[in-house]
């Protein structure tokens, strides 16, 4: 994080705006900065005086693809994803080092406007904390769309920090000719430094976004080792992957207030022993998670264990329990105890 930003001025004239639109829509050559493929070998040592390092916050309302984008930018899965709103509940830091530049991406929960319980207040506090001291903000929306929830997030962004409008899910837009006028209307809402229509599932788009972000990264020593991917612990990642499988395998049946708490995480040689509790608010929710004959809980555990073994390259023994804690999501003490600050 740095007080000085390496950035181009925000467009002020119609000609500058049209040039920015041309770049965004691919009608002008991109800057001659290219990044390598997603999986690259460890870079050669870079002297500290030549290093660049910057914090880049990824913000937006729920379900616009922030976590998918983070995983694509880092090149590895470090943030869980599902169709359920509020899947991301923590500030997740993803690290990618390319050449002399270290990108520190900060994924945030979607800003919550529908519920005012203690859990959502904690999530919104996380969002606000993430955007106050960064070098660049990626404001993620669905391409061609902008609603009140988007506007509420946009209103939270600080002045003085460059913001790139990332128009995600471009592959879902049927009439591409409508994107240019939509981008012009977006510039009237906020003086964005750049527009970037893309699909986070397209590697070429991700590489182009990395090249654009690099222009805003200040010169300063790296904060992490070049092969680091995140600052989160294995214990944290275990709980998150169980929660991902929980959400994916229960669909819309299970309320968003369910969570996962890791009770035990131990190393025994190459084996990791993990015990975790799925916390729900009602007995009926417990039945949804367990499923007929315990089949759903067994599947949640199996899929989580298999993905953890692929992630760490070693054996995992995973035990799962389900407990009912009525009203926990509106209990400040329990929200903190479950790891939401």
TrEMBL record:
Any keyword Cytoplasm? yes
InterPro entries per the UniProt record, alphabetical: G_ERA_dom (IPR030388), GTP-bd (IPR006073), GTPase_Era-like (IPR005662), KH_dom-like_a/b (IPR015946), KH_dom_type_2 (IPR004044), KH_sf_prok-type (IPR009019), P-loop_NTPase (IPR027417), Small_GTP-bd (IPR005225)
Q: What is this protein called?
A: GTPase Era
Region annotation (G3) maps to 107-110
- Which Pfam families does the entry link to? KH_2 (PF07650), MMR_HSR1 (PF01926)
User: Positions of the region G5?
Assistant: 198-200
Localization per record: Cytoplasm; Cell membrane
Q: How does it sit in the membrane?
A: Peripheral membrane protein
- Return the PROSITE patterns for the record: G_ERA, KH_TYPE_2
Q: Where is this region: G4?
A: 168-171
Residue stretches making up the Era-type G domain: 52-219
Q: How does it assemble?
A: Monomer.
User: Which Gene3D superfamilies does this UniProt record tie to the protein?
Assistant: 3.30.300.20, P-loop containing nucleotide triphosphate hydrolases
Upper taxonomic lineage: Bacteria, Pseudomonadati, Pseudomonadota, Betaproteobacteria, Burkholderiales
User: Which residues bind GTP per the record?
Assistant: 60-67, 107-111, 168-171
* Molecular function terms, GO-annotated: GTP binding; GTPase activity; ribosomal small subunit binding; small ribosomal subunit rRNA binding
Naturally occurring in which organism (per UniProt): Tepidimonas charontis
Domain KH type-2 positions = 242-326
- Superkingdom of origin organism: Bacteria
Q: Which gene encodes it?
A: era
This protein's record includes keyword Cell membrane: yes
Family, per the entry?
Answer: Belongs to the TRAFAC class TrmE-Era-EngA-EngB-Septin-like GTPase superfamily. Era GTPase family.
This chain's function reads:
An essential GTPase that binds both GDP and GTP, with rapid nucleotide exchange. Plays a role in 16S rRNA processing and 30S ribosomal subunit biogenesis and possibly also in cell cycle regulation and energy metabolism.
Where does the record place the region G2?
A: 86-90
Q: Provide this UniProt record's keywords sorted from A to Z.
A: Cell membrane, Cytoplasm, GTP-binding, Membrane, Nucleotide-binding, Ribosome biogenesis, RNA-binding, rRNA-binding
Looking at the UniProt record for this protein, which Gene Ontology cellular component terms does it annotate, in alphabetical order? cytosol; plasma membrane
Provide the residue span(s) of the region labelled G1. Answer: 60-67
């Amino acid at each position: 994080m740095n007080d000085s930003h390496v950035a181009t001025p925000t467009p002020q004239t119609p000609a500058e705006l049209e040039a920015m639109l041309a770049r965004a829509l691919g009608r002008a050559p991109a800057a001659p900065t290219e990044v390598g493929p997603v999986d690259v070998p460890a870079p050669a040592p870079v002297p500290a005086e030549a290093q660049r390092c910057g914090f880049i916050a990824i913000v937006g309302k729920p379900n616009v693809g922030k976590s998918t984008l983070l995983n694509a930018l880092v090149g590895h899965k470090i943030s869980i994803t599902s169709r359920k709103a509020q899947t991301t509940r923590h500030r997740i830091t993803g690290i990618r080092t390319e050449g002399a530049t270290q990108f520190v991406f900060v994924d945030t929960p979607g800003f919550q406007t529908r519920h005012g319980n203690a859990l959502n207040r904690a999530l919104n506090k996380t969002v606000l904390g993430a955007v106050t001291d960064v070098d660049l903000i990626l404001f993620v929306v669905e391409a061609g769309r902008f609603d009140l929830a988007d506007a509420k997030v946009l209103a939270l962004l600080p002045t003085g920090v460059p913001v790139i409008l990332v128009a995600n899910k471009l592959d879902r837009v049927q009439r591409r000719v409508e994107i240019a006028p939509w981008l012009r209307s977006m510039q009237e809402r906020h003086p964005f430094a750049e527009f970037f229509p893309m699909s986070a599932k397209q590697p070429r788009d991700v590489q182009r976004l990395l090249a654009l972000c690099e222009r805003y990264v200040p010169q300063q020593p790296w904060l992490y080792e070049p092969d680091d991917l995140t600052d989160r612990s294995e214990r944290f990642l275990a709980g998150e992957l169980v929660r991902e499988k929980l959400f994916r395998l229960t669909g819309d049946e299970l309320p968003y207030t369910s969570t996962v708490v890791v009770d035990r995480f131990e190393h025994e040689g190459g084996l990791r022993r993990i015990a975790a509790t799925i916390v729900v608010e009602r007995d009926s929710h417990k039945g949804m998670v367990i499923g007929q004959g315990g089949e759903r809980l067994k599947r949640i555990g199996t899929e989580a264990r298999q993905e953890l073994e692929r992630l760490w390259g070693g054996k995992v023994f995973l035990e799962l329990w389900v407990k009912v804690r009525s009203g926990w999501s509106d209990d400040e003490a329990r929200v903190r105890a479950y790891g939401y600050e």
